[in-house]
Design a protein that fits this description.
Elements (H helix, E strand, L loop, with lengths): L7 E5 L6 H12 L2 E3 L1 H9 L8 H12 L5 H16 L5 E4 L5 H5 L7 H9 L4 E7 L2 H10 L1 E3 L5 E2 L15 E2 L6 H15 L1 H8 L3 E6 L4 H11 L7
Parallel strand pairs: 1-3, 1-4, 2-3, 4-8
Antiparallel strand pairs: 5-6, 5-7
Helix pairs in contact: 1-10, 2-3, 4-6
Length: 233
Amino acid sequence: MKKSNNKAVILYGPPGSGKGTQAELLVRQYGFFHFDTGKYLRGLLNNPQYTHNKEIQKEKKLNNEGTLNTPAFVLKRVKRETERIARMGMSIVYSGSPRTLFEAFGDAKHMGLFTLLKREYGANNIIIIQLLVSPAAAQKRNAGRLICSACGLPMLAASKANYCSLCGARAKRRIDDNPKIFAHRIDQYQSRTFPILKEAKKEGYLVRKVNGEPAPYLIHHTIARILNLAPQK
């Protein structure tokens, strides 16, 4: 087990709970590396280089439907990227990943992501944050949620902005934020991702619940206190 002050933070919550926003705040305030599995997979699956790759096209179809990608397919790639980030000496934050029990804990033949994180960061530096958001609030957020079409940063619906304040590109809606796919993603979270929290507690990992409905900056302050991060001036 490695001794390090670097942390591996896993943010869980239903679609619309603000995982991406909180991850980006940790990036900007404390220099974390945000490994956005969804963004990583969308980039991979929509890469023109793989137009004729049968495995990639099969996974792309699942992704477009709002169904979680094949766990073994995801785990292999996420572990590879995680090792690279850890060996750069950076803290890491995941927004909603690992997404299935297999991805989290593996099986007799596959090392799960949690085992890899324990090896690279140490068990005491793995912290799981569960963002609690009511279904009504999550649905409302999803209905108005936008991201930057260029840099992909989340944009608050309350700001009513049409352009990104960072790079100036036009805002857009994500493909998987339409109501039909959103409902499917909620079901996927409840049935396939939520059980990870129960198993993680059983395995002795720190799981902290945080109210995900206040303003993002207030939630960020709560998370920073949980992580024992020094206040930023």
